[in-house]
Write a structure and sequence with these properties.
Chain lengths: ~1100, ~425
């Protein structure tokens, strides 16, 4: 958080944030603040003004321009405050563009981004599933760590949503939350587990994606869902199919025994061409050793087969790799046809598919042999495709088709694409070594190429011929002579080096030519490439050993040249050779064996496919394409020796019957459809009813819920109707208690109001300044100024109206299925916005009716430095929170400032100068202090309305001569006022603040820290809360309300077995709640 | 999965970037530019590039590079296929997938990308759903928008995404109910010097244009379904019906879409409708050569062959060509060395030919290989494989639709080696 970082350094980091703060204030008084903006900011001034205009069209234009800037990669982050205000815009396009902006910049402007959270929280309860879903999408895309608990709650809630679309988005959000905060893993796995059980095809792909990202090793979560996933696969959307297939491939490799016969894999690689034999063998083998495939294994293979027909290349490739890795070898053949079909696609798809085919064709030639001609190269193919095709053709070459292939290669060699021609020559070389029948033919062909006009072709031919000759012990004097002649014309270093090596190796076969070659190269030695120089040295050494009479001097000369070469490799080699071959007194025993060392029989090189090593990567993966392990690559395990218990995949009988019959699929779809359409109707109904019948809606919507549920799934009908009636009973009981509680609270209510009127003049005067404060404060002031005029009846009615509704939510939550509840909970759009605000205001006053502010339990004496004496030129200031209700205003937190004069002279006229406050924040300053004696100190108090946020209040502390910029950032615990309430009231209020409004965490600490006094002491030290008397020893309750809005803040510490405890916070102000949770957690867990 | 997307034009400017997770700096594209430089030709830029912290997967479409940034293992085809789907969507929305079109509609592009991916995982890729969410721009609409201030973003929320048939939107209504099918077959062939076929196969597609109200359930049957060897389906087709009865049964998307693509079994002999007589020769030690090609019909099943064009990539040493066509017109681009001969229709009475001289760079060695000829042609009202649609039935709706089937045969990758 940037605001923390600039607490003391105004010049460096502080500048930017201070400006931002000012931008925010500029919305109130645009004229005053402008002078301070840098010129860079002025550029976007018109955009800012457009965003602040009242016209949607101007806002839209501004947003479009901003999105244009984002798209070009220009920085538009300075507009953040102006943009974020429009997050609640009614215009759907503006809203969407604001979302785009928010997601892009929230990470950089975390504090300001928090302002938008409440909008999404509201939208999460919208009756329209698409709005809920998009709210979740954006909320979870805002990468601000502080909202992790809110995201967690939202995901939890959405994962139980009635709409499969919302659940799908919940699955997406899981990955986002995980990448933001990996510590949430355990909780996320729980949600994944729940979502994996989901029967909707919409959800399946996304949740498996989340599974792969978060916990790919938790294979045990798949067992129970394995059969369902196999059966659903065909109906899942295409992107989900890819992910599921890859996951199931890994699963199958851990759960089933190999369908391949023993040692098949190895044998297969060696004997490439006899694959018709192989199949036969497999059959006989099957006869010998009875292998029965697990029916689940078979199910997977069967249910993926239709997907080979998909139009999506990724799906086809995924199925192909599944067949390759887990199907019996005799069945894998069907994938080749589909893969070949993909070759008609664009070049990128071709590239990947050809790579995979290349790997496959090394191991199992037979698969692609019938499609040999599909790999013929066209002159219009890009080079990389040509080379891959060539690779496959080489792998497929055998005695039967080599003649056709060689004819084809002849065309390729002549290609204008020289890189491709060179690759073809390599290929011919490989074919020649692999198939002994054609070695001679190939060699003659290659020799013909030596007379080619293109140097690259000739050079490549030389290199290949060198390799071929090495394999053939037969005499090839003629070819060598021919190549020696080439040395005059050829300039490519590799080729020259190859020729020299070849002559050196065969120097005894061409005794006349070899010394002559050495003579020529000795002349040109200095001008040669390093590679060639090394070979000249080699040639010299070999000739010196075999024909020292003719070449002794020449070799000496070359060795001398090499001694002074610039390249140290060559100097090194020269020294080595000289010691080895030239006899002198120092040369050791080795020189006797020099001949053996230099002219040993060298093993022929093995010409291998570059795709040979790739088969250990799973096909179709990024790692396979790159031939290196990519980050996040999951190794495919080997088949287990013995299959793990297959019964883990058994599901309860009813479901089994439903899922096992393939024909049952069509039937299963029907109830699904009905289910969707009904849920839509239901939503409409419920929203209507809640708007129409205000007082009755509670009970009515309850009935609807029951109806909806029972039709939802007939199989669970009985159990559900049971729970439904139970819920009804509970509801009735609750109603009773509510009416009772109401009558209790009424007189308290009155009192409260009376006390408020005295403050109202103050509050009202401040609310005039506060023109653009957030809705909460608006409703607050409204409720104060207007609600008093409203009759008691209305208040009662709304209370009746709202309370049973919220009650519904919690009841259904307990039962762990959460159907239409959320839509009903919100006031419907039929009510005008002002009325909603009204209701909210009433609700607040109603909730505060049962509570009264009490005195603080404990006042910590900890002070914070406001101004250090070093930076304050001798004036030091400290502040602390006295935890007293503020006398300056109801919404303010009182702060006491102690000023010390450490100088030797009088400090005069201490007062507060310019204030830089975030939007909505207010401050009541202390009266100027005329003078402060040396060594004197004075304590003054002031009030700050922090608007229930932990944003920093910056202002200037001025003396007669100087101004010092200082900040006060309140700890979250100081934004509260303690509240006294009974345990019963606490429980009641807590019951109304469940779901989204609840955050919780688990604390682990030593038992001695869990005594009630320790807990009490720790909690009240951090936060200004009141203690609620508790009937149970293991539960501690604390209550408070936020200073600004008066929302309740209920803290519960519930001790569990062992040394854990659960910390629960219930509040409407979820941001503050989660902040408090974060503050409390470390304090409680530390010793 | 997909972290970010950069759109890069041919001259190497990054003109659009979009991030779905944390922002990845543009500098990551430097690795791509490096690879591009190394590849020399745009066609040869490797689709997958590994950099120290990221992986770049790119496609090249319509002179634009779509470069996506990946951080962890993902099937590369998944990304490639998705990027092509993005390009298809642009094409669909703006009529062309070009830099200018994207720049003009940058807001719509951004809105589309936002809907298509969530956290890098595809969310809505069906064009029907996208069109409901974000209306494509039209001249009329942009005029109306500027006057009334309404927007391109649909305020009705799409229902398709929530249903079991995500490709079709609800509440489709037409006054004229029509269903058209185009059976388009392409012949891929390599013909060698002597005129014999090295390799030939038929690839076909059935494109549909369906404008039917409500929720029609169609079934299309063929006279000779056995011909279809390898088929890939639009997701709307019920695979089980095809397996058991060889009938295409489906609830169609609204508008234009590709119903199936298929390959005709390679066992069948492919009829090659044209033949080419050619004699191209370059004289040793002289700066000219002779060029002579003639095209004639062969096995054309009594239909006229039209729209013939011949494209030849001449060797680099060719300076200019002086030719006379008996029919049509020709152009030779001395920079790219591409000869294009637009022939038109073949009339069997007088076979079209192109004859003349080739000027070579003096002193340069003669090219050793003759260039191969790429031929394009079209035959209306013929499916060269003999595939025939039998009937189209509609269930689920009461009205009587107007139905039509059209057959076309084209040359695909049709290459004659000389």
């Amino acid at each position: 958080m940037s605001s923390n970082s600039f607490a003391y350094s105004e010049q460096s980091g502080g500048g930017e944030a201070a400006e931002l703060g000012q931008e925010a204030t500029s919305t109130i008084s645009p004229s005053g603040a402008f002078g301070l903006f840098s010129s860079d900011m002025k550029k976007n001034e018109d955009l800012k003004q457009m965003l602040e205009s009242n016209k949607d069209s101007a806002k839209l234009d501004a947003m479009k321009r901003i999105v244009g800037m984002i798209a070009k990669g220009k920085n538009a982050s300075d507009l953040f405050p102006a943009v974020v205000k429009n997050v609640a815009s009614k215009n759907i396009e503006i809203k969407k563009l604001v979302y785009v902006y928010l997601v892009r910049y929230a990470e950089e402007q975390q504090d300001l981004a928090l302002l938008s959270i409440s909008t999404f929280q509201r939208a999460l309860k919208d009756p329209n599933q698409l709005i809920r879903a998009s709210a979740l999408r954006v909320l979870s895309s805002i990468r601000v760590p502080i909202i992790v608990p809110i995201m967690m709650l939202a995901i939890k809630e959405a994962s139980a949503d009635l709409s499969p679309y919302v659940r799908k988005n919940a699955a997406h959000a899981i990955q986002k939350l995980y990448s933001l905060d990996p510590e949430q893993k355990e909780m996320l796995i729980e949600i994944i587990e729940k979502l994996l059980k989901d029967k909707s095809t919409l959800v399946a792909g996304s949740v498996v994606m989340a599974f792969e990202e978060v916990c790919p090793d938790r294979i045990d979560l798949i067992h129970k869902n394995y059969r369902k996933l196999c059966n659903l696969l065909v109906d899942v959307e295409e992107w989900g199919q890819v992910v599921i297939i890859h996951m199931l491939t890994r699963y199958a490799r851990t759960q089933f025994v190999s369908p391949w016969k023993e040692g098949d894999g190895l044998e297969d690689k060696e004997k490439d061409f006899y694959d018709s034999d192989e199949e036969q063998k497999e059959k006989t083998d099957k006869g010998k050793k009875p292998y029965t495939m697990d029916p689940d294994h078979r199910l997977l293979i069967r249910s993926t087969k239709p997907l080979l027909q998909s139009r999506n290349a990724a799906v086809v490739m995924a199925v192909a790799q599944l067949y390759w890795h887990i199907a019996p070898k005799s069945e894998a053949g069907i994938i080749s046809k589909s893969l070949v079909r993909l070759l008609r696609s664009n070049r990128e798809v071709q590239y990947i598919v050809l790579q995979n085919i290349a790997t496959m064709s090394i191991q199992r030639k037979g698969m692609f042999e019938p499609y040999l001609k599909s790999f013929y190269v066209r002159s219009t193919d890009p080079t990389m495709i040509k080379i891959l095709k060539l690779e496959i053709l080489t792998n497929l070459a055998n005695e039967a088709n080599i003649s056709t292939l060689l004819r084809e290669f002849q065309t390729y060699v002549k290609s204008q694409d020289k890189q491709f021609a060179a690759a073809t020559i390599q290929t011919i070389g490989r074919c020649a070594t692999n198939i002994s029948e054609v070695t001679d033919t190939c060699l003659t062909g290659l020799v013909c190429l030596l007379s080619n006009r293109d140097e690259i072709v000739v050079a490549e031919s030389v290199v290949v011929i060198k390799k071929l000759l090495q394999m053939q012990p037969v005499q090839h004097g003629e070819i060598i002579k021919h190549m020696a002649k080439l040395l005059d014309s050829i300039t490519v270093p590799v080729a020259r080096a190859s020729i020299l090596w070849l002559i050196g190796e065969n120097c005894e076969r061409v005794p006349k030519i070899a010394p002559d070659v050495l003579r020529k190269t000795a002349k040109s030695f200095t001008g040669e490439d390093d590679l060639v120089k090394l070979q000249i040295l080699n040639l010299g050494a070999k000739l010196y050993l075999t024909n020292s009479k003719q070449t002794k001097l020449l070799t000496q000369y070359i060795l001398n040249l090499g001694k002074y070469d610039q390249n140290y490799d060559i100097r090194d080699r020269t020294r080595f050779i000289r010691q080895l071959i030239v006899p002198n007194e120092k040369s050791g025993a080795l020189s006797k064996y020099a001949k053996k060392i230099f002219l040993a029989q060298k093993p022929a090189p093995l010409l291998e496919s570059p795709f040979k090593g790739r088969d250990h990567y799973q096909l179709g993966t990024l790692s396979h394409t790159l031939n290196t392990t990519a980050t996040g690559y999951l190794e495919l395990s080997n088949w287990p020796e013995v299959a793990p218990d297959p019964s883990v995949r058994n599901v309860e009988v009813i479901e089994l019957a439903k899922e096992w019959t393939p024909a049952g699929k069509a039937k299963k779809e029907n109830p699904d459809k009905k289910f969707y359409s009904e849920s839509a109707e239901e939503e409409e109904d419920s929203s209507e009813s809640s708007s129409d019948s205000e007082s009755e809606s509670g009970s009515e919507s309850g009935e609807q819920d029951d109806e909806g549920d029972s039709s939802e799934e007939s199989s669970e009908h009985e159990s559900e109707s049971g729970s439904g009636s139970e819920a009804e009973n509970k509801r009735a009981a609750n109603k009773n208690s509510k009416t009772k509680g109401k009558s209790d609270s009424e007189d308290v209510d009155k009192e409260n109001e009376n006390s408020k009127t005295s403050d109202s003049s103050n509050a009202e005067s401040s609310s005039i300044e506060d023109s653009s404060s957030d809705s909460a404060s608006e409703s607050e002031s409204e409720s104060e100024s207007e609600s008093r005029k409203v009759t008691k009846e209305k208040e009662n009615k709304t209370k009746q109206d709202r309370n049973p509704l919220t009650k519904d939510v919690s009841l259904l939550d307990l039962d762990d299925f959460n159907p239409v509840s959320t839509p009903v909970a919100r006031p419907t759009p039929a009510l005008s916005p002002s009325l909603i605000a009204d209701l909210e205001g009433l609700n607040l006053s109603a909730s505060s009716s049962v509570i009264s502010v009490s005195t603080p339990v404990f006042v910590p004496v900890k002070t914070h430095v406001l101004l250090h004496r070093m930076s304050g030129k001798g004036l030091a200031a400290h502040y602390f929170f006295p935890r007293q209700p503020c006398v300056f205003g109801d919404n303010m937190v009182s702060v006491q400032i102690t000023l010390n004069n450490t100088t030797d002279w009088k400090v005069e006229n201490i007062h507060i100068g310019e204030k830089k406050l975030p939007v909505g924040m207010q401050m009541h300053v202390f009266n100027p202090i005329e003078s402060l004696e040396p060594e004197g100190s004075i304590t003054v108090s002031m009030g700050i309305d922090f608007c229930d946020s932990t944003q920093t209040a910056s202002f200037q502390l001025c003396t007669k001569d100087d101004c010092f910029s200082v900040n006060i950032q309140p700890p979250v615990g100081e934004l509260l006022l303690p509240v006294a309430m009974s345990e019963k009231d606490f429980k009641k209020e807590q019951g109304m603040l469940t779901g989204m409004n609840e955050t919780s965490t688990v604390i682990i600490a030593a038992p001695q820290n869990f005594t009630s006094s320790v807990i009490l002491q720790k909690v009240v030290n951090v936060a200004n809360v009141g203690v609620v008397p508790s009937g149970q020893d293991n539960i501690h309750r604390f209550a408070a309300k936020t200073v600004h809005s008066g929302s309740l803040m209920l803290v519960t510490v519930e001790l569990k077995e062992g040394s854990t405890a659960q910390l629960i916070i219930n509040t409407e102000k979820t941001v503050i709640g989660s902040l408090l949770l974060r503050e409390l957690k470390p304090v409680l867990s530390q010793g | 999965m997909i972290h970010s997307l950069f759109l890069i034009n041919c001259s190497g400017d990054i003109f659009l970037e979009k991030h779905w997770k944390s922002v990845v700096s543009q500098s990551v594209c430097d690795y791509f530019f490096e690879a591009q430089e190394k590849a020399a030709d745009v066609e040869n830029v490797p689709p997958v590039i590994s950099t120290p912290h990221h992986y770049l997967i790119s496609i090249f479409r319509d002179k634009l590079f779509f470069v996506s940034v990946i951080q962890t293992e993902v099937p590369p085809l998944f990304v490639i296929e998705f990027l092509h789907r993005v390009a298809d969507t642009f094409q669909d929305y703006f009529g062309e997938c070009s830099e200018a079109a994207i720049k003009d509609n940058v807001v719509i592009v951004y809105e589309l990308l936002e809907e298509m991916l969530d956290n890098g995982f595809p969310l809505a890729t069906e064009s029907n759903i996208l069109k409901e969410l974000i209306k494509p721009p039209t001249i009329l609409r942009s005029v109306v928008n500027s006057i009334t201030g309404s927007s391109n973003v649909g305020d009705t929320l799409p229902t398709g995404q929530l249903s079991n048939i995500p490709w079709r939107r609800a509440g489709v209504k037409y006054t004229n109910n029509e269903a058209y099918f185009d059976v388009v077959e392409e012949i891929d062939a390599i013909i060698d010097k002597s005129g014999s076929t090295v390799f030939a196969e038929i690839q076909g597609v059935i494109d549909a244009c369906i404008k039917l109200s409500g929720m029609p359930d169609l079934s299309l049957s063929f006279m000779n379904p056995r011909l279809l060897d390898d088929v890939s389906f639009h997701p709307c087709i019920r695979f089980k019906r095809w397996e058991s009865e060889r009938v295409l049964s489906f609830i169609p998307p609204d508008g234009n879409f590709r119903l199936i693509s298929y390959r005709v079994s390679s066992q069948n002999l492919v009829a090659i409708p044209v033949y080419v007589k050619h004699s191209i020769s370059f004289k040793e030690n002289s700066s000219c050569g002779r060029f002579d090609i003639t095209i004639g019909p062969k096995q054309n099943m009594g239909k006229t062959i039209e729209g013939i064009t011949v494209t030849v990539h001449m060797p680099k040493v060719v300076l200019n060509m002086n030719l006379t066509p008996t029919q049509g017109s020709y152009t030779f681009d001395p920079v790219t060395k591409v000869l294009t001969w637009d022939v038109g229709k073949i009339t069997p009475q007088k076979l079209p030919s192109l004859k003349g001289l080739v000027n070579l760079q003096s002193g340069a060695p003669k090219p050793e290989e003759n260039p191969s000829l790429n031929i394009q042609f079209k035959i209306q009202q013929l499916a060269i494989s003999g595939l025939k649609v039998n009937r189209l039935d509609m269930y689920g709706e009461k009205y009587k639709p107007f139905k039509g089937v059209k057959y076309v045969t084209k040359a695909g990758k049709f290459q004659v080696r000389t």
